[in-house]
UniProtKB/TrEMBL annotation:
InterPro entries from the UniProt entry: ArsR-like_HTH, LysR_HTH_N, LysR_subst-bd, WH-like_DNA-bd_sf, WH_DNA-bd_sf
SUPFAM superfamilies found in the cross-reference section: Periplasmic binding protein-like II (SSF53850), Winged helix' DNA-binding domain (SSF46785)
PROSITE patterns assigned to the protein according to its UniProt record, in alphabetical order: HTH_LYSR
Family according to the record: Belongs to the LysR transcriptional regulatory family.
Name of the molecule in the record: LysR family transcriptional regulator
Residues of the HTH lysR-type domain: 4-61
Keywords annotated in UniProt: DNA-binding, Transcription, Transcription regulation
The species this protein was found in: Streptomyces polychromogenes
Keyword check for Transmembrane helix: no
Transmembrane spans: none
Source organism, top-level taxon: Bacteria
């Protein structure tokens, strides 16, 4: 029977995700030479060629992709085994590392953790602020157990992950207090087609803003680029442009005029992502349930 080495298979999976030996070594806190040696040993154990040269780097062979198709199912089964063992040994006791983007922490994660401490005091949650785009990388390397992300950053059909919809977050438009439409009875995105816009230069928020404006019939003129809401709202307040703002951020927007876009109804979709099988872990299941309850209360 073939000798399947789980540690080496995880290195191969990380290489498939990260693309280079150097990036794989950084993700797993190894040296590049150690990564190469482990993969060479794995190829010898399996009796197949796993890597072949490509330019200055390497690429996975067809045999490597075949191996990964099977090992993804093995990893999911091991997650379920860990979950059952954790439930047997610890019951409602355990640590869960949660990664979440900045606006989700005060709106979803903090209220959920506060409720969880009252209901299951043995479950300890460690919160890590992350960029939504990092969620699946952090999950794949084991840096977090559960990640809050946006559907725009979905890992698609990647069978290693389970994605659970949490919240549909409406987007409002933030206007300078002296904007001509600040007191208008109704505001539509199309009314702002000639305005200067503020949003991120890349990533899901750029995509969400552009898509919403394009659906309203125009391309937004990007006057300024920012990714943090403190910076965006400060620029709107100063009259430098307008911006789409998630409802989650509304509490921070005291000095700008927020208008609900009842006609356009743009939204973003917040999801909880986990390694497949990890949702059975008792502590993770409690955290997920608390997040879903908090999200439902906001909805």
């Amino acid at each position: 029977m073939t000798d399947w080495d789980i540690k080496k298979l995880r290195i191969l999976r990380t290489l498939a995700d990260r693309g280079t030996v150097t990036a794989t070594a950084e993700a797993l806190h190894m040296t590049p030479s150690a990564v190469s040696q482990q993969l060479t040993n794995l190829a010898r154990q399996l009796g197949v060629l796993l890597l072949e040269p490509q330019g200055r780097g390497v690429r996975l062979t067809d045999a490597a992709h075949l191996v990964l198709r099977h090992t993804d199912a093995v990893f999911a089964q091991l997650e379920r085994a860990d979950a059952e063992l954790a439930g047997y040994l610890a019951g409602d006791v355990g640590e869960v590392r949660v990664g979440a983007f900045s606006t989700a922490i005060p709106s979803l994660v903090v209220p959920a953790v506060a409720a969880l401490e009252r209901q299951h005091p043995g479950v300890e949650v460690r919160i890590r602020e992350t960029d939504a785009a990092q969620s699946y990388d952090l999950l794949s390397t084991g840096a977090v157990d559960l990640a809050l992300s946006l559907a725009a950053h979905s890992a698609g059909d990647d069978s290693r992950f389970t994605r659970i919809p949490l919240l549909v977050d409406p987007l409002d438009v933030a206007l300078p207090p002296e904007h001509p439409l600040a007191q208008a009875p109704v505001v539509r995105l199309a009314d702002l087609s000639s305005d200067r816009w503020i949003y991120g230069g890349s990533g899901p928020w750029s995509e969400i803003t552009r898509s919403a404006c394009e659906a309203a019939g125009f391309l937004p003129e990007q006057a300024h680029t920012a990714s943090g809401w403190t910076a965006i709202l400060a620029m709107v307040e100063a009259g430098l442009g307008v911006a789409l703002v998630p409802r989650m951020v509304s509490a921070r927007a005291a000095r700008v005029t927020l208008r609900v876009l009842t006609h356009d109804r743009p939204t973003r979709h917040v999801v909880a992502a986990l390694r497949r099988g990890a949702e059975s872990t008792p502590a993770v299941a409690h955290v997920l349930a608390a997040l879903r309850t908090t999200a439902a209360a906001r909805g």
